[in-house]
Specification:
This protein has 102 residues and is of the alpha+beta class. It has a single domain, classed as Orthogonal Bundle (Arc Repressor Mutant, subunit A). Helix content is 61%, strand content 18%. It has a three-stranded antiparallel sheet. Strand 2 and strand 3 form a beta hairpin. The model has no long low-confidence stretch (mean pLDDT 93).
């Protein structure tokens, strides 16, 4: 077995919570903080920490606004985030193919 593909996995995306966030955002133009929190069953603090890590890596953008006089935080993938997620998925597919052929 060739361990090289495993070593190339993006550690920022690979963490379970961040992978779930990236997956949800890849399927939507943008999602509200509340939508993600409820769908993923995370606490506010946990979700905030994961979003911050993704934002610092340049994978996620966060916008704050108001809707009906209430604060609204939305997140979306940046172009770099979309590329990184696509590369991550491609690498996972390569790993699966490699393991099926062994």
């Amino acid at each position: 077995m060739n361990p090289q593909p495993y070593l190339q996995l993006d550690r920022v995306i690979h963490e379970k919570g961040r992978l779930a966030i990236m997956s949800m955002l890849a399927a939507s133009a943008e999602l509200s903080f509340t939508e993600m929190r409820d769908a993923l069953g995370m606490t506010d603090g946990n979700l905030t920490t994961h979003i911050r890590a993704l934002q610092q890596e340049g994978y996620v953008s966060v916008a704050k606004s108001y809707q009906n006089r209430r604060p609204l935080t939305t997140c979306s993938l940046t172009p770099a985030g979309r590329r990184a997620f696509t590369q991550y998925i491609d690498l996972l597919e390569k790993i699966v193919r490699q393991n099926k052929s062994e």
